[in-house]
Design a protein that fits this description.
Layout: H1 2-20, H2 27-32, H3 39-50, H4 53-65, H5 72-95, H6 101-108, H7 111-143, H8 150-199, H9 202-211, H10 223-237, H11 244-251, H12 256-273, H13 275-282, H14 284-287, H15 289-298, H16 303-311, H17 314-353, H18 360-388, H19 392-399, H20 401-406, H21 408-416, H22 422-442, H23 452-470
Helix pairs in contact: 1-8, 1-17, 3-8, 3-11, 3-12, 3-17, 4-13, 4-19, 5-10, 5-11, 5-12, 6-7, 7-8, 7-17, 7-18, 7-19, 7-22, 8-13, 8-17, 8-18, 11-12, 17-18, 22-23
């Protein structure tokens, strides 16, 4: 019965996505939904895209295993990113009338910087999209009591998300995400209320967490701990700003005011609502301590789905899994489209146009092919990460290291430093990568003198200042 409802929900999502495809007439419709979306859809897209598998499964698992300080990257860093983008970046970028975030690097610097940052931005999505596909596989496995393995579930989930993203593009993302946001909010609040009835309210859960020091947040007062804390915050807080999905939602707005406030409100809503899954998962300690102990030892990410499946009636299970699928699919579709668009527009298009003229229809076809190919790469990466036993929260957190090192400094300098030059951007990228990659190899767990991505970020800033000093930008 439960599986039947889930299948019906998947079919409905595909139907909405395929309907959205009828609104796609050219590449700009596919990539930016014609820059016509109102604030309620933009806010819904920002919230639902970022409220992904890591928020419902990964973040609570990390909180159960560690404490509040373990969540510095997400939701704290993630919400910081969205608010910063809305306040400091959305208006300036919207006025430039770009198609992708990669176009900024070409217009402000040159083609070489555009290609390198475009590839870095696209690669950063492997971890994020794979986390969503991995979560879909986990959900299908739990629902079927192991009848569908997580590997098989990953393949099924990837196929479903690809199906409606491939044809409808940004219109599919916009309409399905708005529908999915409604399901997410109503569904998770309802389940939280059901669990609160079983724990005697919210207060006993909070008291239990306080007694077990789960609200410990600030680092120890020593240099190593504080640098690790700051690094965790800026990896996602800064590293996810130069991302196509954030830019795409702001850029699809009907005006710059919608671009600003849709992003800010979506970020605030994300931060506040991220507390709901934390409460839901931690309530297992009071409702069924044996179940909590079992999944803490085996796979904490499965605790919340198993709690709902084992202790709530069928109707509540349908609501929960509908909300969970909405969470995952809304993020997966948006984060599958974003890197594919970046690769098409900022990497492949330039090489193709050297040989022949590329019409708007040709760009649309090429982008859809890239979506399909990227979906295959994401699926392979998800299967590999499953074998490595990489957690969903960790997969998302790792995704933004490359953009922090490569793309963030040239973006900020290009918007806010008039003299920032192409040589500065090139040196920022070169020094950032040449510092980060060796340290990541030598200290993969961040146990060196500095976290690898933090050292790369500092060197990127050094490169930008040095290159601009050696050859400042000439005013035209």
């Amino acid at each position: 019965m439960l599986t039947g409802f889930v299948i019906l929900y998947l079919v409905l999502s595909i139907g909405i996505g395929m309907y959205a495809a009828t609104r796609v007439h050219n590449a700009r419709d596919y990539i930016a939904a014609g820059r016509s979306l109102p604030i309620w859809i933009v806010t819904a897209m920002v919230f639902a895209t970022w409220f992904g598998a890591e928020t419902v499964l990964g973040i609570p698992a990390t909180f159960m295993e560690e404490d509040l300080g373990g969540l510095i990257s997400d939701p704290f860093g993630a919400a910081l990113c969205l608010i910063l983008f809305g306040v400091f970046f959305a208006r300036k970028l919207y006025r430039m009338n770009l198609l992708t975030i990669g176009d900024f690097y070409r217009e402000r610097y040159d083609r070489k910087v555009e290609v390198i940052t475009g590839i870095a931005i696209a690669l950063s999505y492997l971890g994020w999209v794979s986390a969503q596909i991995t979560a879909l596989g986990l959900v299908f496995s739990v629902l079927s009591d192991g009848g569908i393995t997580q590997t098989q579930g990953i393949l099924i989930g990837a196929a479903v998300v690809l199906m409606y993203t491939l044809y409808g593009g940004m219109w599919s993302v916009a309409l399905t995400t708005f529908f999915q946001m409604i399901v997410i909010v109503i569904g998770l609040i309802y389940i939280a209320m059901q669990l609160a009835d079983m724990t005697g309210g919210v207060a006993p859960v909070i008291e239990h967490a306080v007694a077990n020091e789960k609200f410990h947040f600030w680092p120890e007062l020593n240099a190593v701990a504080m640098i690790a804390f700051i690094s965790g915050l800026i990896t996602m807080g800064f590293g996810s700003i130069p991302q196509q999905d954030v830019f795409q939602r702001a850029n699809a707005s009907k005006n710059e005011q919608v671009a600003v406030w849709g992003t800010v409100i979506g970020g605030v809503a994300y931060f506040l609502f991220a507390a709901v899954p934390l409460f839901m998962a931690y309530s297992a300690n009071l409702i069924d301590p044996a179940l909590a102990a079992k999944w803490l030892a085996e796979d904490t990410q499965k605790l919340l789905p198993e709690l709902v499946k084992g202790h709530l009636p069928l109707f509540a299970q349908v609501i929960f899994y509908g909300a969970l699928l909405s969470v995952i699919m809304s993020t997966a579709s948006g984060t599958l489209l974003a890197p594919s668009v970046t690769l098409s527009e900022n990497v492949l298009k330039g090489f193709v146009t050297r040989r022949r003229h590329l019409s708007d229809r040709d760009l649309l076809i090429m982008t859809r092919w890239v979506v399909a190919i990227f979906a295959v790469l994401v699926t392979l990466y998800a299967l590999w990460s499953l074998g490595q036993k990489t957690g969903i929260h960790q997969m998302v957190e790792n995704a933004y290291k490359v953009t922090l090192v490569v793309a963030f400094v040239p973006l900020v300098a290009g918007l806010y430093w008039r003299r920032a030059s192409t040589l500065g951007a090139t040196l920022a990228i070169g020094l950032g990568l040449s510092t980060w990659i060796p340290l990541e190899v030598v200290f993969p767990d961040g146990e060196g003198p500095l976290p690898p991505q933090f050292a790369g970020f500092l060197m990127a800033m050094t490169g930008m200042v040095l290159g601009t000093w050696l050859r400042p930008r000439q005013d035209h």
